Every structure is written in C-alpha cells, then in structure tokens.
Amino acid sequence: MPNLLIIEDEKPIRDMLRFALHAAGYEIIEAADSHEARVLLAETVPDLILVDWMLPSGSGIDLVRQIKQDELTQDVPIIMLTARVEDEYKVRGLESGADDYITKPFSMRELLARIRVVLRRSTPEHGDGPFQIGDLVLDHNTQQVTCRDEIVDLGPTEYRLLAFFMAHPERVYSRSQLLDRVWGRSVYVEERTVDVHVRRLRKSLEPFGQHHLIQTVRGTGYRFSEHY
To answer: 8, CA 20 to 30 Å: which among 187, 202, 213, 216?
Structure first.
C-alpha cells in the first residue's frame, strides 16, 4: 500500500485529504509545515508527497528543492497544491522539481487520477499491472513474484528488496542506502542485515536461474542488472 506524505498547514484540508486518500487505499502521514515535514522525512521515505505552495515556515517551493537535493528523497514524486492559477507559478513549481501541479479548489477524483499517474510514471512498482524485467514479473496487486509463470517464494523483506531493485535497475546502492529505502530510516538494524537478505533473495531466485540479477559491486553495495 503506497505511503503518502501530506504537507499542508490548513487542518480542514489535511483532514479532507487524509480521509479521502485513506479510503482510496493509501497510507497517510502528514505535516503542518516544512519543519515537521523534514522531521518525518528523516524517519521514512514516502512513495509520494503532496505539498502546499504556501507554508508558515517557508515556501513549498523551497521545501521541494531541499527534498530533491537529498539523495535519499530525490526520486520521490511530488505534487504541488496551490491556489495560484497563473502559468508562471506552475512553471516555477515544475522547475523546482515537482512532478505535477494542481490548483485549489480541486476535485478528489482529479487528484486521485493525478496521484495514480505520477506513481505509475515515477515508481513502476505501483502501477496497476504487473511489473516485468526479463523473466521476472512482480505484481503489487497480488503481492506475488513469478518467473515463467511459476511462483517465486519470497519472504516479505525479500519481496520489498526485490521490488526496490526492479524499480531502480542498473543503479548501485550502498548497504546504508538500501536500509533507508527498503527498511526505513526509523528502523535501526546493522548494515550486514542487507547482506543476509540479499543472500536469501538470491537463494530464492537461484532455482529459476535469476540469482545473477542481484550483483555485488565490490566496495560499494549492490546493483540489479540484466547485464553481466
């Protein structure tokens, strides 16, 4: 279930968004200003951020730039919420790093549609259909991984690890980065925990000849790649 961070200083709007988005199947965390948002982002990496343009402790534009400059949150998609309708503000919002822009008042139907589109475009593992690389197919709707129509038996942590790797192929991640992105910043475990779960994931993929996809990059970490 995708995790959304709402950054909005008006409580009635936050409450409305929380109720509607939770009913649509999203987990919600929320912040009333930039400071609260930064505290939350130090503990967890959401799947998508909704941020208001005008915030009491600094503009949403500045916060978006900070989020995009942080290595751990730079890939998180952002939708800006604002009452400003002029094109110049839309351009400024998008140039700051936001992925989409919606003006108030908006319908929840439109917002939900935009969220689905941005998630599908930015994080393929949240698409409506199966996500496939090579012979591996990962379907978040069924929480199953298959290879040539056979089910790959994975534990929950191995599943999340594989989902992250498949969503970010060809990129090298250190053990600490994987801990933050897969386990979450608020979970305190040793970096060697990553090695244990990588070994388990490879062992589960080995009968299907797919263990080579999880590659060790000596002195750095791990990479998911179809290329040897």
So the answer is: 187
Rounded to 5 degrees, what are φ and ψ at 4?
-110, 140
Q: Are 78 and 64 in contact (CB under 8 A)?
A: yes
Please determine, looking at this structure, whether the domain spanning 3-122 carries the CATH number 3.40.50.2300: yes
Cβ–Cβ under 8 Å, residues 49 and 7: yes
What is the pLDDT, as a whole number, of residue 1? 63
Type of residue at 119:
L
Stated length of the chain: 228
What are residue 105's phi and psi, to 5 degrees?
Answer: -80, 150
CA distance 226 to 135: 10
Backbone angles phi, psi at 181, to 5 degrees: -80, -30
Is the domain 131-224 a CATH 3.10.560.10 member?
no
Query: What residues does each domain of the chain span?
Result: 3-122, 131-224
What is the DSSP code (8-state) at residue 58? S
Enumerate helices (H) and strands (E) in the chain, giving the number of each: 8, 12
d(CA 20, CA 15): 9
**Cα–Cα distance for residue pair 95/61, rounded to 1 Å:** 9
Residue 81 backbone class (left: φ over 0; alpha: ψ -120 to 50; beta: rest): beta
From 56, 31, 54, select the one nearest 41 (Cα to Cα): 31
